[in-house]
Design goal:
Elements lengths: L5 H10 L1 H23 L2 H19 L15 H6 L8 H8 L3 H13 L4 E2 L5 E2 L7 H25 L6 H10 L1 H23 L2 H18 L6 H6 L1 H7 L5 E2 L1 H8 L3 H13 L3 E3 L6 E3 L12 H23 L1
Antiparallel strand pairs: 1-2, 3-5, 4-5
Length: 321
């Protein structure tokens, strides 16, 4: 198969935004909910993502001296124990995650206490899952690979590529550290983007749940991203396809306490991103409005599509090579 250009993948994401984004947001919901439940909050989890990404980078560098080096998921447990992870300064972790320096310092101390991060010689910090976590880790990764594969599979169908879902999953597992380095890299960039905008990562996880419902509801009627954002009239026309969700449902899916969900959802209401039905106490995305809505701002959407197209470009070309 021939090499695909990034601009073609970006056009595919843009033109089929409403069809593709439910799969992406479901992947994000699964990934972020898992991070929240494992580490207790998304800020600490984001720091672990940073260290895990660099662990995969060190493994990936083994290919520089041995083209046959085994990057597979099956060999990951051996690989991560046989690499030397570089020392990371707190300021670098702060810059990469978008978290304030003092917040980063506090979260790292907590992660060390909970044994999610380890401190080695000369106070070197690194990520190394404990052996008892092995089975749990592999189960989680298997689910995340499945979610990622579905997102890539949906894109490949619209690009007329013959990439069966089973082949995508198998390829990612066989070259796990290559694909997972890029997967975690895009997660860091995506989460940092929302950290800069919302200053509250729990709001990202909660907002994703509303977006999944809304996009699933309207994708049968619209599939062109540009058409939806071209005029305010179009947003009003699709309002009837909007869906709502309760704080209880959000809590059940994300693992975030219900009281916290209510507080964050109400904050979205004050931002005029969501509206709340006072009788049912359910929340829905505001589509027919001219005030600032970060979930619908074209510049934000285009930036997000660029992040995803850069990532998909690497993954899809790796698969068809």
């Amino acid at each position: 198969m021939k090499h695909l250009e990034n601009k073609l993948i970006q056009k595919n994401l843009t033109d089929n935004f409403v069809k593709l984004m439910p799969t992406f947001y479901e992947m994000e919901s699964s990934f972020l909910s898992g991070i929240y439940k494992r580490y207790g909050d998304l800020e600490g989890g984001n720091i672990v993502i940073f260290f895990a990404r660099d662990c995969h980078l060190e493994i990936l560098r083994k290919r520089e001296i041995d083209l046959n080096f085994d990057l597979s998921l099956d060999n990951f447990w051996n690989n991560h124990k046989n690499i030397i992870q570089e020392k990371k300064k707190i300021i670098l972790v702060s810059q990469q995650t978008g978290l304030p320096k003092e917040t980063t310092r506090r979260k790292i101390i907590s992660l060390i206490k909970k044994k999610h991060l380890k401190k080695g010689d000369r106070n070197k910090l690194y990520w190394e899952p404990d052996f008892p976590q092995k089975e749990t880790y592999l189960k989680i990764i298997d689910e995340e690979i499945n979610s990622l594969s579905k997102f890539i599979f949906e894109q490949s169908k619209m690009l007329s590529l013959q990439l069966p879902l089973s082949k995508i999953e198998r390829e990612i597992k066989n070259n796990y550290s290559f694909y997972w380095y890029h997967f975690l890299n895009v997660q860091l960039e995506y989460i940092k983007f929302w950290q800069d905008k919302l200053k509250d990562l729990e709001m990202l996880l909660i907002g994703v749940q509303v977006l999944i419902l809304t996009l699933n509801s309207i994708k049968r009627n619209f599939n062109n991203f540009n058409f939806i954002l071209d005029s305010q009239k179009n947003l009003k026309n699709i309002s009837e396809f909007n869906s709502d969700i309760s704080a209880t449902s959000v809590s059940d899916i994300t693992g975030i306490p219900r009281a916290t969900c209510i507080r964050k959802l109400d904050k979205f209401v004050r931002m005029k991103v969501l509206q709340k039905d006072q009788k049912s106490k359910r929340y829905s995305l505001i589509l027919d409005q001219t005030t600032f809505n970060p979930m619908l701002t074209p510049d934000w959407m285009k930036h997000k599509i660029k992040i995803l197209s850069d990532f998909s470009f690497i993954i899809i070309n790796g698969l068809i090579k």
